Amino acid sequence: MKAFRMGTAALTLLTAALSQQACSSDDNGAGLSEAQRHGVGAACTVNADCFVGDSHLVCLPFKGGYCGLEGCQGSGDCPPGSSCVKHEDGKDYCFLLCTDKTQCNYTRPVEIEANCSSKITFADGTKDSKACVPPS
Length: 136
Description:
single chain, 136 residues, alpha+beta, seven-stranded antiparallel beta sheet, 2 helices, 7 strands
């Protein structure tokens, strides 16, 4: 029952964020990126929480979960608006791209916010970009 409630909460957050996006034509402001519209970066407890439309993401093992993909080799393996990041745990994940922290948390509650960080290594060597890194 707990997983259902978390799934419902994540869906409610995503619905609210999508409603915000409908009122905005600027995806760099209050709207969502392509990756966010497909669930990347959302909080989760089980893989089913990460199924949005035809996206088949998984719930990655971070605090509060993080919908994304594991095992990417480059950004081409990730949904548009996300990129392949070499995480400090030694694995590569598709994380949301961002310019500020608010973009990381449209679908995450305050207690498990992700940070927009430039202190990361992109698998393809990209420089001068940031990604939403979930809490460990």
